């Protein structure tokens, strides 16, 4: 059985998908981009600020589901330029305890929605 998770504290989907879906005790969180849910505007120009916005959007969805970053078991990071990896990694790391951080991959892609520089998705468990 699946349960849809939705919050106004993260950007509304820009297509036919949901912010997150519980399947049993597993939460699948859709990729988040640096879209400010309060203004509807993209955060751009500084990869650290963009990454922070993405992580705040993810946090809002996790919170709505009754979870925290401690529940995350897998992350996927998509970058428009792998040269920004160190800056993204630095911001991303502030949201996790290094000893209990999730599994992860980071890949460079040709394009992302709205031509942003970073998108992150997650899988979490209760």
From TrEMBL:
**Gene3D superfamilies xrefs:** RutC-like
Q: Which organism is it from?
A: Leeuwenhoekiella blandensis (strain CECT 7118 / CCUG 51940 / KCTC 22103 / MED217) (Flavobacterium sp. (strain MED217))
GO terms for MF = deaminase activity
Q: What's the protein name?
A: Uncharacterized protein
Pfam families assigned to the protein according to its UniProt record, in alphabetical order:
Ribonuc_L-PSP
Domain of life, per UniProt, equals: Bacteria
Instruction: Tell me the SUPFAM superfamilies matching this sequence.
Output: YjgF-like
Q: Which family does it belong to?
A: Belongs to the RutC family.
GO terms under cellular component:
cytosol
């Amino acid at each position: 059985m699946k349960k849809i998770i939705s919050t106004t504290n993260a950007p509304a989907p820009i297509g036919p998908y949901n912010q997150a879906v519980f399947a049993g005790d597993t939460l699948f969180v859709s990729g988040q981009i640096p879209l400010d849910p309060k203004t509807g505007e993209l955060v751009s120009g500084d990869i650290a600020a963009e990454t922070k916005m993405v992580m705040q959007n993810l946090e809002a969805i996790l919170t709505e589901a009754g979870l925290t970053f401690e529940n995350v078991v897998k992350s996927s990071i998509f970058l428009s330029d792998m040269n920004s990896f160190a800056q993204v990694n630095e911001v991303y790391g502030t949201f996790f305890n290094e000893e209990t951080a999730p599994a992860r991959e980071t890949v460079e892609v040709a394009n992302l929605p709205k031509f942003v520089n970073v998108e992150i998705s997650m899988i979490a468990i209760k």
